[in-house]
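ok here's Putative amino acid ABC transporter permease protein, seq below lol
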Amino acid sequence: MTMSMIANLLPGLATTLVLWISVLLIGIPMGLFAGLALQSGPRALRWPIMLVTQIGRGFPALVTLYLVYFGLPELNVTVTGSVALVAAFSLTTASYLAEVFRSAIAAVPGGQREAAMALGVPVWSATTFVVLPQALRMVIAPVLGFAVLVLQGTSLAYSIGVQELLGVAYSEGTMNFDVFDYLLMAGAFYLIAYLLLMWATSAVRRKAMSFQDKRTRVLT
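and the structure came out like this:
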């Protein structure tokens, strides 16, 4: 019975993973761009991005999802549930990670970029090749932690008819008169994914601390 339940849930799990990866592939670069703009961009760019990120963080993810899914058809733009979720969650992800990236960029000593610019390196090259590599090391663990929330949040797609893991679990459970066990199995999948991501986050933190210790010993 358990193996048949797992087999029945696999299509939903695959959909969940596709949604999750799609959101991260779009949301993380958007968040990085927004973080760069908020920290170093011109004022004409900072203010609109600040407004969008504040809205993205202020609206609950479900509200943003509904606004995209039900709002775009009002503008004669028809989207599927999967596209609506990826668009809405990418905006939410970018809005939260923008501040993470901005803070990491701000934490890199400004003298390093100034030294590179003094050697004739253009400002964007100094930011890209001097500041960003250090900032990205700082944000790996927070980004992985946020990725866990995104994975769990994909279950909201069920509310607009997407047959992801939760949707398939409920549908299969209803047809087999075994909703509780199917939902429990779906929860087990989420738990396993959570534990794997937390393990990866801890490993990254340990590696970052080890790198920092080695760097400190070299400098001293």
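fwiw The chain has one domain: 2-215. kinda neat tbh
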